[in-house]
Design a protein that fits this description.
This protein has a six-stranded antiparallel β-sheet. The chain starts with 8 loop residues before the first strand and ends with a helix. The radius of gyration is 13 Å and the shape is globular. With 127 residues, it is of the alpha+beta class. The chain has a single domain (9-111), classed as Beta Barrel (OB fold (Dihydrolipoamide Acetyltransferase, E2P)), CATH 2.40.50.100. The chain has helices spanning 31-37, 84-87, 91-94, 116-126; strands at residues 9-10, 15-21, 24-29, 40-44, 51-52, 57-63, 67-71, 74-81, 102-110.
């Protein structure tokens, strides 16, 4: 059984996007990404008020294996960050779809994303 909720949108760089309002989204990493990273030990969060472009590194996560950038799938402004991750980065491993990284507001555009089914097919080709 897959672990890719249908209500989310997915990127080729393994972030998920969830619409909160018409111009506000939550962004996190997929179950596939957290498994590939291994145990996450640190999250470098963006700053509230940062303006981000599509494809720009908005955060990074450090795992026991490597440091990996998290890319912004939208153009907008960081409205909120998930401060729980500063003290408990392992939440990204435990609940990748509950542990969002940032809420981006004033969303002007969003990169082309995939549905859950399209994302599953995409990662099947990568495996």
């Amino acid at each position: 059984m897959s672990n890719y909720p249908n209500e989310l949108h997915y990127t080729k760089s393994h972030e998920w996007v969830k619409y909160i309002e018409e111009t506000t989204v939550e962004v996190g990493i997929t179950d596939y990404a957290q498994k590939a990273l291994g145990d996450i030990v640190f999250v470098n969060l963006p700053h509230i008020g940062d303006s981000l472009s599509i494809g720009e590194a908005m955060a990074d996560v450090e795992s026991v294996k490597a440091v990996s950038d998290i890319f912004c799938p939208v153009a907008g402004v960081v409205a909120e960050i998930n401060e729980e991750l500063a003290d408990a980065p392992q939440l990204l491993n435990q609940d990748p779809y509950g542990a969002w990284i940032a809420r981006i507001g004033n969303v002007e555009e969003i990169e082309e994303t995939m549905t859950a089914q399209e994302y599953e097919e995409f990662i099947a080709k990568e495996a």
